[in-house]
Amino acid sequence: MKKPAKPAKSAKPKATVPKAKAAPKPIKKVVKKPAPEAAKPAPPKIEPKLSAPVGISEKEQTQLFERAMQLFHKADYAKAAPVFKTSTDGPSLEKRHAAQMHIKMCERRIHAQSGPQTAEDYFTLGVSLMNRGEHADAEENLRKALAKNAKADHYLYALALCLGQRGKGIEAAEALAKAIELAPQNRIAARNDAEFQALMSQPAIRDVLYPERSNPGQS
Known about the structure:
This protein has helices spanning 58-73, 77-87, 93-113, 119-131, 135-148, 153-165, 169-182, 185-191, 194-197, 203-209, 211-214. The protein is mostly helical. The chain starts with 57 loop residues before the first helix and ends in a 5-residue tail after the last helix.
């Protein structure tokens, strides 16, 4: 007798495991950067205004300036200068500058009126007189220049020329020899100077300029 077949075991249903849901992605917050502030313009620099002296009124300044100009045109520079000076205390810069310019002009003309003072003044005057043919006065002023500065070779050079033009050949030769002693290049300068060449008829001057001719073998 056959045993009855065992009933087939029914397959147990597999338990389904629910899939885990992916974690939500974090939302990035977009933070807006504040726009850079526009550079503020630098405050304008306030330049201090230059103020002119106001010791006197503009009317007084004008009157003083006009008075000074009258004295200036009369060549009374000694009186004009201090009046110009006072007018510089007024408020008008234009008149102030004009007054300062005239003060300098007054000083120069006062100096010129007072005559030569320095060795160079005498030298300049002496050369000017010599160029005008006033040789006696030129000699006087050149000697005054040398009295103040005996080592100035150009004073001696000019005096030598002046003396030569006056026909004082020996004195001229002495002055020229001293000029050459102080500055040997003066011999070459005189040899190339048309005015000295005109004096070559005077033996003393010629001997100084060309010693090798009167003393062969000497340079």
